[in-house]
Amino acid sequence: MSTYSVKNNAAGSPRAMPFKKYKPFQPIALKDRTWPDQTIDQAPRWCSVDLRDGNQALIEPMTPLEKQMMYDLLIDLGFKEIEVGFPAASQTDFDFVRKIIEEGLIPDDVTIQVLCQAREDLITRTIEAVSGAKNVIFHLYNSTSTLQRKVVFGKSKAEIIELATQATDLVKTFIQPLEAAGTNVILEYSPESYTATEMDFAVEICAAVMEVWGATPEKKVILNLPATVEMTTPNIYADQLEYFLRHLPRRDLAVISLHTHNDRGTGVAASELGLMAGAERIEGTLFGNGERTGNCDIITMAMNLFSQGVDPQLYLSDMQRITAVSEACTKIPIHVRQPYAGELVFTAFSGSHQDAIRKGMAFVESGSDGAWEVPYLPIDPADVGGSYRETVRVNSQSGKGGVAFILENYFDVQLPRELLLELSPIVQKKSESEGGELKPDTIWNTFVQEMVDVEGPYQLIDYQIKTIPGEREHCSARVRVSESEIAIEGEGAGPIDAFVSALAKTLNESVNVVDYQEYALNEGSEAKAISIIAISDAQSSKCFGVGISPNTTTAAFRSIIAALNRLWRES
Ligand code: KIV
Ligand code: ZN
Questions:
Q1: Does 151 have pLDDT greater than 70?
Q2: 9-31 mean pLDDT
Q3: Is any atom of ligand 1 closer than 6 Å to the C-beta of 192?
Q4: Ligand 1 within 6 A of 190 CB?
């Protein structure tokens, strides 16, 4: 009987987690929601917040050089809106903003964004930082959540609105000289902890900010609605957004932006459902780096669009470079299962998956309609700089499909099914005994040892072929049989026939060729032929052998010798 007792898991028992400590999130009443029927058919406006102060809660914030590397990458990837820092909160950020402005490092079609709390001294300093820039998003925020009003600020709703509108007014006033000097300034307002705020209050405060700013259809305010801490399933976030948009006066004066976090692991899903609910802009980071569990992972979200046939409006085809720069700057390794980028995400170890991938690839290559239709691979790894070859890796879970794939794709060798059925258990056993993955070279060496350079009594030393009258061939050869060197001779319709009859006659072995194929292994001066032959003996046991040589006849003779040695080994 098991020592584990189910009773021990019951609520209230010593083993139960203290779940009673937590209250369920109360969803808003929105029975006639329409967002579930929407589909996402275009990319949102993306805004990277990778460069925020502290660079999104890194143990070691980026050095100025790393910040520059990350900034250059973001520009290369096609981001048109980049939050370049919180200049009033950090000297490094301030200096970085000045540097990219003064050194002309901001392309004309890129808008830099600067984060700032709703406080006069910070607003002044932030404006100082962005002076001389062409396009600026001034990102103003204050927390509006019920809990924070109660336990952090001790302020009423009216006082919080006052704080936000006064700050908006200050930005509007202080920014005027910059605008007069030609800077185009957009206001972004974030009711921080929006999802933990009463929805009607969130609407009220955003509407008040829009009014003070004097938003117009030409000068919209970005309303950024953060899930500062992710507290619900993503559908509830979408409900909150649909509710917000239905109640916001003058929806036409706002760009709705989302800023999700990933505390429940659904930051991307929440942003996706949020787009369905009517948002048009997404803030996030590469690979979801950010406070605690991180932000919305823009790479995953963009690649999700790509995999649905939607232009992601970002250029993510060199995933290795993106990963390398991100790891170098954040010092956080990318997980091997990170969607679209991890080392294992396009890899199949399971035999049945490998088989299906092989067949899917053959289907795509044999002229389907050009659409990607390969089982187990949501996208073509080549689209993100990967290679189809890397999709299949072999361990003890892999079957003949994996072995066939590696031999075909790394070594150009296509083996008949029967031979694969012989080889794959040998490879599997090797993986079990060595524990773990077998690299292509190990699989090749196993193949060579088992099928090509087979240990046994027979060895070909040399041979001569002569054409004789009657369109026949004469073969004289020297073979080693155990310790003795033997000269053999025979005739046949072709060299193989002649060699086999010489062997059979002299060695007194019954040898019949029952299967034979030969093809070139690779092109050019390195070209080699591979001969795959099956022979049967007097007991009609069928046995394969493989020979490889730049000379086709030598390849064929070696394959016969290999088959004889294998037959001997089995007898
Ligand atoms: O998560 C959050 O609420 C933020 C705000 C500053 C937008 O990062
Ligand atoms: Zn955030």
A1: yes
A2: 85
A3: yes
A4: yes
